[in-house]
UniProtKB/TrEMBL annotation:
<feature type="domain" description="Ketopantoate reductase N-terminal">
    <location>
        <begin position="5"/>
        <end position="152"/>
    </location>
</feature>
<dbReference type="GO" id="GO:0005737">
    <property type="term" value="C:cytoplasm"/>
</dbReference>
<dbReference type="InterPro" id="IPR013332">
    <property type="entry name" value="KPR_N"/>
</dbReference>
<dbReference type="InterPro" id="IPR008927">
    <property type="entry name" value="6-PGluconate_DH-like_C_sf"/>
</dbReference>
<dbReference type="Pfam" id="PF08546">
    <property type="entry name" value="ApbA_C"/>
</dbReference>
<dbReference type="InterPro" id="IPR013328">
    <property type="entry name" value="6PGD_dom2"/>
</dbReference>
<dbReference type="InterPro" id="IPR036291">
    <property type="entry name" value="NAD(P)-bd_dom_sf"/>
</dbReference>
<dbReference type="InterPro" id="IPR051402">
    <property type="entry name" value="KPR-Related"/>
</dbReference>
<dbReference type="InterPro" id="IPR013752">
    <property type="entry name" value="KPA_reductase"/>
</dbReference>
<feature type="region of interest" description="Disordered">
    <location>
        <begin position="247"/>
        <end position="276"/>
    </location>
</feature>
<dbReference type="Pfam" id="PF02558">
    <property type="entry name" value="ApbA"/>
</dbReference>
<protein>
    <submittedName>
        <fullName>Ketopantoate reductase family protein</fullName>
    </submittedName>
</protein>
<feature type="domain" description="Ketopantoate reductase C-terminal">
    <location>
        <begin position="192"/>
        <end position="314"/>
    </location>
</feature>
Length: 338
């Protein structure tokens, strides 16, 4: 039986791992700190619009404890800025088959890159031969140890997964589509996943604005629109393909049904907001807004809105600012009245 090793069991990884464990799939969660301790002691609780459930899959904190075999599939769900530290550690772990080491994880195992942004596939390819890019639509929040809040049900999340570079889907990928979908994690297998990931990148540009402004600031929608317009111009100039807008809208509408979670506010922040709310000291914005800036600079262009957002997010994370605390500074930097 295939085992799914969830590397980073936070909001996204916890939702995927929890959903799979609930339906009897073999899951190993990899986490750290108090979150790992609580999951080991009391299990992982997923709270959804349809109610809560708790699962008790095994949890490790040290990759060396994984005891990888040829039946494993790795699912990378850390933040993008953490991936470069995580990937080589996992790639060099031994893989066992019938009591014999037959190679390393980088040589023998597929890795699914379920991260925001568009660079994790290239990063993973430095260490892994089989990289499965993944576009993640999954409205989840992880703030408390041992708990993930998922704001969609009965489908908890929508994943588009495909090999990078382009090629036939490996057997491990086609084999997971039905059991994952049955668990509440709907999986689609497009011929090319990267146009989906670039379109998702545009949708993620508001994450940093939400984090710095707060999730209900009156300027949030206007500034998000400015960042997105800027990004579309840069991506078009670079000749980067986006999935057809109608196809993108239809896929989301067919899959996700966001609803309030009992006992929680109707509005809760996204991944970058959660980083500031938890005081992690880091944030992934350099691989979201910062990716637009990188592409712009490569073309000899500027992307001032996205550059400003990325810079302010770095500052907020570095000084430990709470969501909304630096709103005035961001508005001043963007020339918007508070």
């Amino acid at each position: 039986m295939t085992r799914y090793v969830i590397i980073g069991a936070g909001a996204v990884g916890g939702t995927i791992g929890g959903a799979l464990a609930r339906t009897g799939q073999d899951v190993l969660l990899v986490a750290r700190g108090r979150h790992a301790e609580v999951m080991r002691e009391d299990g992982l609780t997923l709270r959804t619009p349809d109610g809560a459930f708790t699962v008790h899959p095994p949890v490790i904190t040290d990759p060396a404890e994984a005891d990888l075999t040829v039946d494993d599939v790795l699912v990378l769900t850390v933040k993008t800025h953490q991936a470069v530290d995580v990937l080589p550690v996992w790639a060099d772990l031994p893989v066992w088959d019938a009591g014999t080491v037959v190679g390393t994880a980088g040589e023998r195992l597929p890795i699914i890159t379920a991260l925001n942004g568009v660079v994790s596939e290239d990063l993973a390819s430095r260490w892994f031969r089989t990289v499965l890019g993944c576009c993640v639509w999954l409205p989840a929040i992880h703030l408390e140890p041992g708990e993930v809040i998922v704001r969609s049900a009965p489908v908890l999340g929508m994943l588009h997964i495909g090999p990078v570079p382009l090629g036939p889907a490996p057997a491990a990928l086609t084999a997971l589509q039905q059991p994952w979908t049955d668990s509440g994690i709907r999986v689609a297998l497009p011929a090319d996943v990267m146009p989906w990931k670039y379109r998702k990148l545009i949708s993620n540009l508001g994450n940093g604005l939400q984090a710095v402004l707060g999730d209900d600031h009156p300027a949030l929608a206007e500034l998000t629109a400015r960042a997105e317009v800027e990004a579309r111009e840069v991506l078009a100039a670079a000749g980067i393909e986006l999935v057809d807008e109608d196809e993108h809208t239809a896929a989301r509408a067919d899959s996700l049904t966001p609803r309030p979670v009992p006992g929680e506010p109707e509005r809760l922040g996204g991944s970058s907001w959660q980083s500031l709310a938890r005081g992690t000291g880091s944030i992934e914005t350099d691989y979201l807004n910062g990716e637009i800036v990188r592409i712009a600079h490569r073309l000899g262009r500027e992307a001032p809105v996205d550059e400003t957002v990325a810079r302010m997010c770095r500052r907020a994370a570095t000084i430990g600012a709470a969501p909304g605390e630096l709103a005035g500074q961001l508005l001043d930097a963007l020339g918007v009245g508070s």
